[in-house]
Design brief:
This protein is of the alpha/beta class. The chain has 14 helices and 8 strands. Strands 2-1-7-8 form a 4-stranded parallel beta sheet. Strands 4-5-3-6 form a 4-stranded antiparallel beta sheet.
């Protein structure tokens, strides 16, 4: 018999209208959204449901919004839907989604998760404002080629790999000048490159200021040993049971690259062959198709799919 893992999306998965149907249909989801509004002191649920899109896309809004929507969908899936009574063996989340994975594993409380993701977004936005920067997705080139491009482009500023998402897709982060040079170099080498619509150079040394602030927030946050394995973005291996180690990995996540492909390969090697993506969008499904096409995959992104 195969094993099942839960996967949670990161920033960029947000879409106006997300969570509205599950909020209206299920009290457990309504409770989560309403509590998040109380914690944050503004109508996060209204922004999720009605937008406007530019407000929802703001780093300090989209992060708690995706976290809360993913939690609400998971609660319904577990209690009312196809996930009721099913055994889940592991969890992983892409960047921001790692917080949802830790919540799903019982390591991070919901209220703390709401506060942390909001503060994380504020800190990342502040770091981006202090250092104008961006990210570029490079497709069709291998890891060595991309690292070589970063080395050469660094003459124009700070730049480094940020996301190893799947075969043939690597994202780099850096100053605008260095990223512009990397984009040109990638295309000159036969790859395809596109600048991403992000606030700044996430998962790079330019987020050092945000990492310092996040470390302070995490020190004030209670973390329990995960009840199931949770893959860590920066290592591609599982979180340990010690709170200090979990905190360290979450802080490192802001300034180091995310190893999503390696995380998925870790799960696959350990026998996980059924994956459930819970949250807005279907980004993780697309990445898994590039990593292991034979893996069974399902999405829980609205009331219908959550209820099964």
């Amino acid at each position: 018999m195969g094993k099942r893992a839960l996967l949670f999306p990161g920033q960029g998965a947000q879409a106006v209208g997300m969570g509205r149907d599950v909020y209206e249909a299920f009290p457990v989801a309504r409770e989560r959204f309403d509590r998040a509004d109380e914690i944050l002191g503004f109508g996060l649920s209204k922004v999720c449901f009605d937008g406007p899109a530019d407000v929802l896309a703001a780093t300090d809004v989209s992060q708690p919004a995706i976290f809360v929507t993913s939690v609400a969908l998971t609660e319904v899936w577990r209690s009312e839907g196809a996930g009721r009574g099913l055994e889940t063996g592991a969890a992983a989340g892409l960047s921001l989604g790692e917080y949802t994975a830790l919540w799903a594993a019982g390591s991070l409380g919901f209220e703390d998760g709401v506060r942390l993701t909001r503060r994380r977004g504020e800190l990342m936005q502040a770091a981006a404002d202090a250092n104008p920067s961006t990210m570029v997705s490079i497709m069709g080139l291998d890891e060595d080629q991309v690292k070589n491009i970063c080395d050469r482009a660094s003459e124009a500023g700070i730049i480094s790999p940020a996301n190893f998402n799947c075969p043939g897709q690597i994202v780099v982060s850096g100053t605008k000048a260095a990223c512009a040079r990397a984009l040109d170099m990638a295309e000159a080498e036969g790859g395809r490159a596109v600048e991403l619509a992000v606030a700044g150079a996430f998962h790079s040394p330019l987020m050092a200021g945000a990492a310092e602030g996040l470390a302070d927030e995490l020190e004030r946050t209670s973390l329990a040993a995960p009840r199931m394995p949770v893959a860590a973005n920066v290592t591609g291996e599982y979180h340990g049971t010690e709170a200090a180690e979990i905190r360290s990995l979450l802080v490192r996540q802001l300034t180091e690259c995310t190893l999503w492909q390696k995380s998925m390969e870790r799960l696959l090697a350990d026998g996980y062959d059924e994956f459930v993506e819970i949250g807005p969008g279907r980004v993780l499904r697309g990445l898994m198709k590039r990593i292991e096409r034979k893996a069974a995959f399902s999405n829980v992104s609205d009331a219908s799919s959550a209820a099964g």
